[in-house]
Protein: acetate--CoA ligase
Organism: Desulfobulbus propionicus
Amino acid sequence: MPFAPIAKNVATMAVQPNLLDYERIRADFSWEEARAALDGLQGGGMNIAHEAVDRHARGPLHDRAAIRFLGKDGTLTPLTYGELQARSNRFAHLLGQLGVLPGERIFWLAGRSLLLYAAFFGTLKHRSVFCPLFAAFGPEPIAQRLERGNARVLVTTERQYSKKIKPLLDRLPELRCILLVDVDADIDQRVRALPSLLQGCSEQFTIPPTDPEDRAILHFTSGTTGMPKGAVHVHNAVLTHFITGRYVLDLHPDDIFWCTADPGWVTGTSYGIIAPLLHGVTTIVDEADFDAERWYRILAEQRVTVWYTAPTAIRMLMRTPDTLRQRYDLSALRLVHSVGEPLNPEAVLWGQRVLGLPIHDNWWQTETGGIMVANYAALEIRPGSMGKPLPGIEAAIVTRLDADTVRIEGAEVEGELALRRGWPSMFRAYLHDEQRYHKCFVGDWYLTGDLARRDADGYYWFVGRADDIIKTAGHMVGPFEVESSLMEHPAVAEAGVIGKPEPTIGEIVKAFVVLKPGFTASEPLRQELIGFGRTRLGSAVAPKELEFIDNLPKTRSGKIMRRLLKARELGLPIGDTSTLEGSES
Ligand code: AMP
């Protein structure tokens, strides 16, 4: 451990942490008790929207701001729990009027907007399934997800619709309705104006019986082969959101919480929407993208107490002068959390020095639905470690022996991070891909695809991905998806895509391209291919670097050996090449 641990002194904390004695709470923990802390629906069942919104709207929090929405233009619009209940009720009615059935998929492609919250909870109240998409995706990733997710309704903006969706309509016969958030009149029978439709809907709605195992949310995540995987989550996931809100985010009734994640990613829903509202706190939503000065101003002016952000953003803040931060009063802030990529120990210490608070790293993924390993307010931080498993979660470092067995490793041994199956927010399926889902489990364990180790005191340390998935600015990018898109260009015979380490955003997407006969590598062609990727895939997914190469290294079975491309790029030893095409034995 090259960096000294950061001790915590609970006696000097303004607010006593919810998790004071980690070992005791872990030993006594039961998910049944967590369930008992929530309402449940009258007559049984569990619905996330009831727990996060209606439960509070019917009580003393009716007039409390659930959301403070900060517009790009500097406006501040509060939305109370009571208003959120009424608006989500209208949306639930609208889905009924449109003939949408429970279980059908409602997609969101409209970034951060106040309507998001009405649409999200309205969808859950109607017992349909909500699927958020990242607004910066290009047409190809959008089309694939809408197709694969059998989108029934898409909520989007006029701009997204005319730029990206309209040309795709023929590919999407199941998409029967497109609701535009920012137009006053319907365009045709299929493309309708959401605000005016909502005007005509009642504000009263009773949530029908909802089985805790009913599907609620669908999140797409990237795979190394094949197209993106749709991870399915159920209403019972709310137990994990509630417990992580209590023990990791450490939410208390008067907190002002800010999660900076985009609503298109799982953090944006689990922690940008659900967890803070479950705890009845006020949550900040900023319509604008990252801007260091704006972010410090928001933290100061909104008196944010608990802040959940990501390593890329923290590293961008680290690049600004400390004098910028010193212009803002951050005295309300008491906890800072980070997720999504490895958090460098330097960033934890930077937090301590510049924000006056260390940064608490935590680990989870789309499939886990909620935080699984974390640093806690009252527990010593070991800079560079992801922390310890959540109470109620059993984690282990394992080695896969065969399809049915793993070996559980001891302290300080590197292996795959695994979680004992059965926690409430565990994904219940990859949509239309049962085989792939089952492959994630070995016996009682869910294998995460991440390599890690545990130290003798139970802290987990991230080592790397076991596969070729790229994390760029916190976004998962599947190399296969990028390779497939590049290959649609007439000059491209083959492409191999890797993540190339970059100090601020973690990794950049880099493509190696083999040209078809008759095409010659040139700078204009390189630029053309980069532009082609950006138009099809969007800036978050497209390669930022592209290099021509004569041949791609492949296995004998024809799979691209991205590991080799990466080793060559970084000048590292190329390791085991026994399966390389053309190699001996
Ligand atoms: P996603 O499914 O997009 O949320 O991405 C999940 C993946 O991001 C994990 O499997 C890890 O590879 C990576 N990740 C998330 N949090 C952390 C963290 N605290 N440290 C290192 N990697 C992380």
Observations:
- Residues 404 and 442 are 5 Å apart (CA to CA).
